[in-house]
């Protein structure tokens, strides 16, 4: 299936590692020009070189902390300078520490919201006016299944994800009429640096080892394994494309069937 992504311009936050980088590679493999942003410049350059070598599409990068004031505007300005338009935004930046509720301090919640929730809000607020002007845009949010089914040792991430789902739905309602479609993926546990750190936090809080914790997760996943980043990236790429035609305001679980609820 031709996804029609050739020469589309995609901003990917969190694009220098993990799920964001996997999405950038996947979008570039479909011919999209990608603009990557995250803090670590070396990691950004590494992913950019990998993409240029594999797919020979143009890549732009901007190293910045998305929690800074004005970060969304800076990213959008730099992407427009590089490519002249923005068709797609993938919100992939995010991370939240876990731990037992009684020991997790306010700052952990603040940091989690500041990065993942407000980072996405800022980037969308800056990109949407350009998408409105061209009557076309695709926003894909990488949220996470803990938003639907809170994990007791990862409540900051669970709370952020639930709030993010509200924004996902709200933006789809507000801007669908402008040709801007907003959708999300809800990954289950997917092998990345971040999930391994989160497992370590949760294991400490549970008095167990990260390996035992991972085994425990596996047993809860009907397909019996963690997800792979490329599996999330393929769904994000589909949602960023016109092949996703009539999808707007959805959150697609990519979790091997781990979420049990029917909604
Ligand atoms: N992996 C999973 O199992 C899983 C499951 C459900 C949901 N998710 C969600 O998917 C998203 C990506 O997770 P991941 O597993 O791929 O994590 P990751 O490998 O740690 O990637 C996180 C990304 O966010 C960037 N980032 C962190 N702090 C930043 C800041 N202050 N400013 C700008 N960028 C920042 C990181 O780059 P720098 O550090 O260089 O800034 C990195 O690119 C997260 O929102 C996570 O909650 C992941």
What does this protein look like?
By secondary structure, this protein is α/β, with parallel strands linked by helices. The chain has a single domain (9-252), classed as Rossmann fold (3-Layer(aba) Sandwich), CATH 3.40.50. Helix content is 48%, strand content 14%. The chain is built from 8 helices and 7 strands. Helix 1 (18-29) packs parallel to helix 2 (41-55). 46% of the residues are buried. The model has no long low-confidence stretch (mean pLDDT 96). The structure holds NADP nicotinamide-adenine-dinucleotide phosphate. Residues 14, 16-20, 38-40, 43, 65-67, 92-95, 115-116, 142, 144, 157, 187, 189-190, 192-195 line the site of NADP nicotinamide-adenine-dinucleotide phosphate.
Write the layout of secondary structure elements.
Layout: E1 9-13, H1 18-29, E2 33-38, H2 41-55, E3 59-63, H3 71-83, E4 88-91, H4 106-134, E5 137-142, H5 155-175, E6 180-187, H6 193-206, H7 210-220, H8 229-239, E7 251-254
Parallel strand pairs: 1-2, 1-4, 2-3, 4-5, 5-6, 6-7
Helix pairs in contact: 1-2, 1-8, 3-4, 4-5, 6-7
Bound molecules: NADP nicotinamide-adenine-dinucleotide phosphate (NAP).
């Amino acid at each position: 299936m031709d996804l029609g992504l050739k020469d589309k311009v995609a901003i990917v936050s969190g694009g220098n590692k993990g799920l964001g980088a996997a999405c950038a590679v996947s979008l570039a493999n479909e011919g999209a020009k990608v603009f990557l942003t995250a803090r670590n410049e070396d990691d950004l350059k590494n992913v950019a070189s990998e993409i240029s070598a594999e797919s020979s599409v143009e890549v732009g990068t901007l190293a910045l902390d998305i929690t800074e004031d004005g970060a969304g505007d800076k990213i959008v300005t730099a992407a427009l300078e590089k490519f002249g338009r923005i068709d797609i935004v993938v919100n992939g930046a995010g991370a939240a520490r876990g731990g037992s509720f009684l020991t997790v301090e306010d700052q952990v919640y603040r940091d989690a919201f500041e990065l993942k929730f407000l980072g996405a809000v800022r980037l969308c607020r800056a990109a949407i006016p350009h998408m409105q002007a061209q009557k076309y845009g695709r926003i894909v949010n990488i949220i996470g299944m803990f938003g639907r089914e809170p994990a007791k040792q990862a409540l900051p991430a669970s709370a952020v994800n639930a709030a993010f789902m509200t924004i996902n739905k709200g933006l789809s309602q507000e801007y669908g009429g402008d040709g801007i479609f907003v959708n999300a993926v809800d990954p289950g546990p997917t092998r990345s640096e971040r999930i391994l750190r989160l497992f370590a936090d949760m294991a400490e809080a549970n008095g167990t080892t990260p390996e035992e914790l991972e085994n425990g997760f596996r047993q809860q996943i009907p397909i019996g394994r963690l997800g792979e980043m490329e599996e999330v990236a393929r769904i994000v790429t589909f949602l960023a494309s016109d092949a996703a035609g009539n999808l707007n305001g959805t959150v697609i679980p990519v979790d091997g069937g781990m979420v049990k609820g029917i909604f």
